[in-house]
Amino acid sequence: MKTILYSSILLLLMLFTGIKASAQQENDSKHNYVVLTKKVPQLQPILLTAEKLREEDGSQFGNFEIIICGKNIGDITDPSKMDEFITKAENLGVQIVACGFSLNKFKVEEDEVPKKMKIVENGILYNFQLQKKGYKSLSL
To answer: Would you indicate the residue range of the signal peptide (predicted)?
Structure first.
């Protein structure tokens, strides 16, 4: 009887120690975010969200990427539409990414994309790849 009692206590201790270690490991990781959008004007609320999350997360704030895809991809070549967003993103440590597939489909030359933006081959695929790495994702 004593053996069963001691075994049960030992099992419970091991279980709770494992849960605590797992929770500790989870808390040590950074919070990474990715947002997929089709419209440049949506950058305003997305960047405001990044700013608030940066404040809330503190040292846990990791990477924040915004992927722009779709038929309005040409808007990223207009400095009057993009310069303010690029500056704000840079100040927040946010990366704005252009979908290469959309650039090709809607005939936007890569050299017209602002130099501070990253270009990926396929924005949707890139989004899924980031999700597989644990990024929290939102599509607008």
So the answer is: 1-23
